[in-house]
Specification:
Layout (H helix, E strand, L loop, with lengths): L1 H63 L20 E2 L17 H21 L21 H11 L9 H17 L2 E2 L9 H15 L10 H12 L1 H12 L15 H13 L11
Antiparallel strand pairs: 1-2
């Protein structure tokens, strides 16, 4: 009888110990869970703060874009410091400078830039001469009315809310072209705002994700170049790039026998340039 009572006491004590251990484990898991929650909360707060800073920077750009400029008239405030020249290029054009300018991707990038500038000029200065471009049809933007040109601009910029005006779009594109040709930009250009392309891209990505759409449906210029190379094969693509680099020397046999090689190249580049969409950090 006594032995049975002892065994029962031992069992009761063992159960109490197990319950105590389990309680301690639960408390420890609770503390760990709370710590993880606080860590995630702090991280989310930091990410939100960073996003807010990015959005604030975009808001500053937009706010600066009210037609305030007395000199260049593209919607950016101009003061005495505007004489400063900036020698650091916008990040998005770096792959298309130097030797990169003369690749298939480079020629297409600058054709897209020229096309956007030409459209903008049809709106802001409809009587000015057409922008000279080696690839675009010289009458393509010029044959449009000012209203038609503006409609096309908003197709290009359809999901770029950080670009609220035609003049700002023109200023950004012309600054890139200026840097390509001279190696610097004027200090009062909105393109001097470092990271503007990345900020616009982030806002566009966020909008796509919010609507459940896939950005991968749109090719970057580099991806398009690789696609064309795969379709043509290395040898034919090499001939295409040589023809693009020196269109005046392109022969019929370089691409398709019996067909004007210059016409093929111009049609290809022109069609691609007229159908791109701006993603902030480059065309797609």
């Amino acid at each position: 009888m006594v032995e049975t009572d002892v065994q029962q006491d031992d069992l009761g004590e063992s159960a109490a110990q197990r319950a105590d251990v389990e309680l301690k484990r639960r408390r420890e898991r609770g503390r760990e869970s709370q710590a993880r929650f606080r860590k995630k909360q702090a991280q989310a707060s930091q990410e939100t703060l960073a996003e807010n800073k990015g959005m604030a920077a975009i808001a500053d750009i937009v706010e600066a874009a009210r037609p305030l400029s007395p000199r260049l008239d593209y919607g950016i405030w101009v003061d005495a410091r505007s004489a400063v020249r900036v020698s650091k290029p916008p990040v998005e054009i770096i792959p298309f400078l130097g030797a990169g300018r003369y690749t298939f991707a480079g020629h297409l990038y600058w054709a897209c830039t020229d096309y956007l500038i030409s459209l903008c000029r049809r709106v802001t200065a409809p009587h000015s001469p057409s922008l000279p471009s080696p690839w675009l049809d010289g009458h393509s933007p010029a044959r449009l009315t000012s209203r038609q040109a503006e409609d096309r601009i908003w197709i290009v910029l359809q999901h770029s809310p950080p670009v609220p005006s035609v003049r700002l779009a023109q200023a950004l594109a012309e600054a890139q072209r200026e840097y390509r040709d001279t190696g610097y930009m004027q200090g009062d250009s909105p393109a001097c705002n470092e990271g503007i392309g990345a900020l616009m891209r982030q806002e566009i990505e966020a909008d796509y994700l919010a609507r459940g759409q896939d950005l991968a449906a749109w090719m970057t210029i580099a991806e398009l170049e690789r696609h064309v190379q795969r379709q043509l094969g290395s040898e034919a693509f090499s001939r295409l790039e040589k023809a693009i680099a020196a269109p005046s020397k392109a022969m019929d046999s370089d691409l398709v026998p019996g067909v004007d090689a210059n016409a093929i190249i111009r049609l290809l580049i022109n069609n691609l340039a007229e159908s791109f969409i701006c993603f902030g950090d480059g065309p797609r």
